[in-house]
């Protein structure tokens, strides 16, 4: 039967909001499968019936390549077939997770030159994982043929809702070469050949590559990926890291296009191990960029394990940052939202490490936090705890002997609440924000391969500064309940929608960002940057004047001196009244550098100084907009010090830029988040405090009459109009969440 053409986007049921549990048949852990599926149908049916009775509407099963194609072109999809049959009978939908990293041994015999190769030249022979290199043409075709065969079978079932095509994409998945130091992949001949083609598309002519890399190649087949840290150039290293992220996106797209040709009406997704603000593009196994990956499927998403396997848990700010970052990537452009591919269901284990207890209240907080950010699917990991491997005994919603837990009941209750209002949750979108923090992968590239090398002095303090600079600023803004977006440095086309843009740790910026930021301020935006903005461009070339990229004129100042500070710590003493909440004499902690800034032009003036008197911060105007430059790194300092003055600075920047919030909440431990659907709002109220609280929440809404309903209790909630806002008062226990549907009167 001929496959239908690929359409622009899948069209799953518009009101389907999956509330699923990971269940692959029996107690086998992903990506393993139990054998003799048909002989176990009735036992599996009992599990599915229990899952459905608790309130879930879907399961997420899986298929690994080794089990599904034990011999070349001899496919065995019995497990998926049985689960599709049972799910259809039990009124559940099925999402199929595909694992190609668990590859069959015949692939290695058929294609002996398909093994992953490290930067050292060491060859990795798989042991169940990580499989074989997708850049080998024979492996690539076999992989895509497997997806096609599975799609042909799955699409016949009305219970089949869609896919997760790649769990937590990396170049190397589910295997660590402990015998290699600083292993980096993949340097096999097939990936190297693909890299050369990528470079040829980027540079066009070999001479252009030679100029960029400071080399003397005479043919493309002489070009190799960067392996060394050299003093002359690190443009080659930046190209290699960018290629890896582009390759991951292209590899996901190839999977997507394959299944879409065969099953165009089923949704196709994938999810990261964690948002890319919490990973690094420098990792040897290859880490994806959320903005690149979100464009490749119907939904991109993330795993979320707030109590993974250690003695600490994510606090509300860290959870919020992870989810708001994923939301920002997945709603950018024409994005429709994101899925939580894996949400921790029970306490975690990794070998001897055992995580904190996961409670029903935890699951409520994690689930509703994700949905409040616009998640369009929740997949709890997992139904049963892991029955083997170094995670054995961990992560289950129920006990391994089948005992139902209060956690599973609580998750089921939330699933029922969503199920009663699927169209509402599926159609609601996050309220558009007015403030944004710039995510810049180039920040990791400063120094090239030397950046990752062991180095003495203050460089030890730099570890994690890219991530902490983002989270520190987000942390300072979090208590305001102002929606904060993250925007990618390579995607500034829509920057004009924001009143405030903050540029953390901006040492390396792409050339095209200069004109975009200049136009943003000229047209009336407020831009705030930390020290040494645009010191380097994307090739690693230093700016003649800092701020670079022509931003010295925009910021009304230039760097006249810079120095590392003892212990990596410094202080900026505020001298002005420009920013609401700050007064002369306030002291703001900074990190790493003291950058001396000289004002340029009549509109610029110094607003803070270092202890020695050197100018440490400058405000200015440019066109219709205004700017602030900070001569150190306050974001990372706040993430580590939680200083009240820094909190007041970033909160004051909102008022300085006239950023308005669509929702306000008190007392301080209460968080309020909004989704919108036409004239209606979904209001999520969280009490993060250790004590009960009377939450007072006001939502800015157009004139008219409104009512509210608690969606879990299915009960009316009183509201009152006060000026331009609708106000709600709710009593919340410590750690409690309420979800309210505020409805406009359609007849008014």
Query: What is the CATH class designation of the largest domain?
Result: Alpha Beta
Q: In which range does the helix fraction lie?
A: 25-40%
CATH architecture of the largest domain: Alpha-Beta Barrel
Widest sheet: strand ordering: 15-14-16-17-22-21-20-18-19
Estimated structural class: alpha/beta
Low-confidence stretches are 1-12, 453-461
Number of helices: 19
* Radius of gyration, in angstroms, nearest whole number: 27 Å
User: How big a fraction of the residues is strand?
Assistant: 15-25%
* Largest sheet features: 9 strands, mixed
Say how many strands there are.
Answer: 31
Essential attributes:
TIM Barrel, Rossmann fold, 748 residues, single chain, alpha/beta, Immunoglobulin-like, 9-stranded mixed sheet
């Amino acid at each position: 039967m001929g496959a239908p053409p690929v359409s622009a986007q899948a069209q799953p049921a518009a009101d389907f909001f999956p509330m699923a549990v990971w269940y692959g048949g029996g107690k086998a852990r992903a990506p393993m499968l139990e054998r003799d599926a048909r002989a176990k149908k009735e036992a599996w049916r009992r599990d599915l019936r229990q899952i459905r009775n608790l309130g879930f509407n879907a399961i997420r099963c899986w298929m690994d390549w080794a089990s599904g194609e034990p011999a070349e072109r001899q496919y065995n999809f019995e497990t998926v077939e049985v689960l599709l049959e049972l799910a259809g009978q039990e009124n559940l939908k099925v999402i199929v997770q595909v694992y190609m990293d668990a590859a069959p041994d015949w692939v290695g015999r058929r294609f002996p030159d398909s093994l992953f190769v490290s930067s050292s030249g060491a060859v990795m022979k798989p042991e169940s994982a990580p499989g074989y290199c997708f850049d080998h043409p024979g492996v690539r075709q076999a992989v895509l043929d497997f997806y096609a065969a599975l799609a042909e079978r799955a699409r016949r079932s009305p219970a089949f809702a869609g896919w997760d095509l790649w769990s937590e994409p990396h170049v190397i998945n589910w295997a660590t070469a402990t015998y290699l130091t600083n292993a980096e992949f993949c340097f096999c001949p097939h990936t190297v050949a693909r890299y050369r083609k990528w470079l040829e598309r980027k540079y066009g002519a070999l001479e252009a590559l030679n100029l960029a890399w400071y080399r003397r190649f005479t043919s493309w087949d002489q070009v190799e990926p960067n392996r060394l840290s050299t003093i002359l150039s690190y443009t080659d290293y930046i190209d290699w890291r960018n290629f890896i992220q582009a390759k991951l996106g292209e590899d996901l797209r190839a999977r997507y296009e394959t299944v879409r040709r065969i099953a165009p009406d089923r949704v196709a997704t994938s999810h990261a191990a964690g948002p890319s603000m919490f990973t690094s593009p420098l990792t040897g196994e290859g880490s994806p960029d959320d903005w690149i990956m979100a464009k490749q499927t119907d939904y991109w998403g993330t795993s979320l394990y707030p109590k993974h396997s250690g003695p600490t848990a994510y606090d509300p700010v860290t959870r919020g940052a992870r989810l708001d970052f994923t939301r920002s990537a997945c709603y950018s452009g024409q994005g429709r939202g994101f899925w939580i591919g894996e949400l921790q269901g029970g306490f975690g284990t990794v070998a001897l490490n055992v995580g904190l207890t996961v409670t029903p209240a935890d699951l409520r907080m994690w689930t509703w936090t994700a949905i409040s950010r616009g998640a369009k699917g929740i997949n709890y990991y997992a139904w049963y705890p892991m029955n083997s491997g170094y995670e054995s005994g961990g992560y289950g919603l129920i006990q391994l002997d089948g005992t139902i837990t209060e956690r599973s009941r609580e998750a089921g209750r939330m699933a029922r609440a969503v199920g009663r209002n699927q169209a509402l949750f599926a159609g609601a979108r996050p309220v558009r924000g007015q403030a944004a923090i710039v995510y810049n992968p180039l920040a990791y590239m400063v120094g090239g391969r030397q950046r990752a090398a062991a180095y003495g002095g203050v460089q030890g303090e730099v570890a994690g500064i890219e991530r902490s600079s983002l989270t520190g600023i987000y942390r300072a803004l979090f208590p305001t309940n102002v929606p904060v977006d993250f925007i990618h440095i390579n995607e500034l086309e829509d920057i004009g929608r924001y009143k405030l843009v903050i540029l953390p740790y901006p040492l390396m910026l792409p050339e095209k960002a200069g004109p975009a930021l200049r136009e943003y301020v000229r047209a009336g935006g407020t831009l705030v940057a930390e020290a040494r903005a645009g010191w380097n461009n994307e090739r690693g070339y230093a700016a003649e004047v800092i701020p670079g990229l022509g931003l010295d004129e925009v910021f009304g100042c230039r760097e006249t001196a810079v120095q590392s500070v003892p212990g990596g710590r410094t202080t900026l003493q505020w001298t002005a009244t420009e920013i609401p909440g700050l007064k002369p004499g306030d002291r703001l902690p900074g990190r790493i550098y003291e950058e001396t800034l000289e004002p340029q032009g009549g509109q610029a003036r110094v607003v803070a100084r270092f202890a020695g008197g050197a100018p440490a911060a400058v405000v200015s105007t440019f066109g219709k907009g205004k700017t602030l430059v900070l001569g150190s790194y306050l974001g990372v300092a706040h993430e580590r010090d939680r200083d009240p003055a820094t909190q007041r600075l970033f909160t004051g920047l909102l008022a300085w830029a006239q950023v308005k919030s669509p929702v306000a909440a008190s007392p301080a431990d209460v968080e309020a988040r909004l989704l919108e659907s036409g004239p209606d709002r979904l209001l999520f109220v969280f009490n993060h405090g250790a004590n009960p609280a009377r939450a007072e929440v006001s939502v800015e809404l157009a004139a008219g009459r409104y009512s509210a309903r608690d969606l879990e209790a299915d009960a009316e909630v009183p509201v009152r109009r006060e000026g331009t806002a609708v106000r709600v008062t709710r009593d919340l226990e410590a750690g409690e969440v309420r979800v309210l549907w505020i409805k406009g009167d359609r007849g008014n």
